[in-house]
Amino acid sequence: MREMKVRPGIDAVEYQEKLSHLIRFLERGDEIKVTVMFRGREVINPERGEELLRSFAADLKDRIKPGSSTVREGRVIYMVLTPNAG
After folding, report:
1. Prediction pTM value
2. Exposed, middle or buried: residue 15 (CB in 10 Å: 0-12, 13-18, 19+)?
3. Which end of the chain is more exposed for a tag (fewer CB within 10 A), N or C?
4. pLDDT tens column, 18-28
5. Is residue 60 within 8 Å of 81, Cβ to Cβ?
């Protein structure tokens, strides 16, 4: 399993870079744990992290198995993405 860590305030260029890495990992058949880490007052708005994870899942919907849900543990929210078999 691979892990990709991101912050909730990433810009569009960094998002596209992370998305291309996720696509490459999924094409290899790797399972990926995408983690959004909060620092300081960022934890007040956990919906920003959940929105970021949902947008990754939406952009990768044809490459991942459905049913991935977000899990919140303290200052971290994560989602496990499993590649499609075919």
Report:
1. 0.89
2. middle
3. C
4. 999 999 999 99
5. yes
User: Encoding tokens for residue 40?
Assistant: 């300081």
CATH superfamily of 2-81: Translation initiation factor 3 (IF-3), C-terminal domain (3.30.110.10)
Query: Per residue in 51-86, pLDDT tens?
Result: 999 999 999 999 998 877 899 999 999 999 999 875
Residue 64 CB partners (closer than 8 Å, separation 6+): 26, 57, 81, 82, 83, 84
Which residue blocks in the chain are alpha helix, DSSP H?
12-28, 46-59
Domain ranges of the chain: 2-81
